[in-house]
Each structure stands twice: as C-alpha cells, then as structure tokens.
Amino acid sequence: MTNQGVYRALGLKQVRQLKEVYECARAVKANYPESHIASKAAKRLIDAFEAEIQNGGPVLDSYWLTESDPQGIA
C-alpha cells in the first residue's frame, strides 16, 4: 500500500485507516483460536486484503486502488 498512486487516489488518511484495519485484523486472528467467530471474520478480511486480482498480484501491492473513484464516505 505504499504505492504513490494509492495515496493520490485515496489520500494519506484513508491509506492509514486501511493499514490500521489490516493490522487489527491480524491481531484479532493471532489472539483468538481459529474456531472463534472473530478469528474467522478477521481471516476473511485478511484474505480480502491479500487476494490476487485479475491483472496483478496481491491487492496490497497492486494498482487497483488507483483505479477506484471513491465517492462519499464509507
């Protein structure tokens, strides 16, 4: 997520928030057993961040965020 295009598309604040979500998900997964619902949810979130996309590598290292057109607040 350190790609300069990501910062231009989303802004520094949003990239920091995404990194925080990712790190929190990793912490939750580390602190709960695999069978716990929080761990399962964290695993799905981590998998979404690390997923392979059609044209490139992992989401964290690719340009898909630069192609987005964020509108409003989420």
Task: Explain how this protein is built.
With 74 residues, the protein is mainly α. The chain is built from 3 helices and no strands. Helix 1 crosses helix 2 (12-31) and helix 2 (12-31) crosses helix 3 (37-50). It is elongated, with a radius of gyration of 14 Å. The two termini are 19 Å apart.
Q: Number of helical runs?
A: 3
C-alpha Rg (nearest Å): 14 Å
Poorly predicted segments? none
Secondary-structure element order, as H and E? Answer: HHH
Mean pLDDT: 76
Q: How would a textbook summarize the main sheet?
A: none
In whole angstroms, the N-to-C terminal distance is 19 Å
Concise overview:
This protein is mostly helical and 74 residues long. It has helices spanning 4-10, 12-31, 37-50.
Present the secondary structure layout.
Layout: H1 4-10, H2 12-31, H3 37-50
Helix pairs in contact: 1-2, 2-3
Salient structural properties:
74 residues, mainly alpha
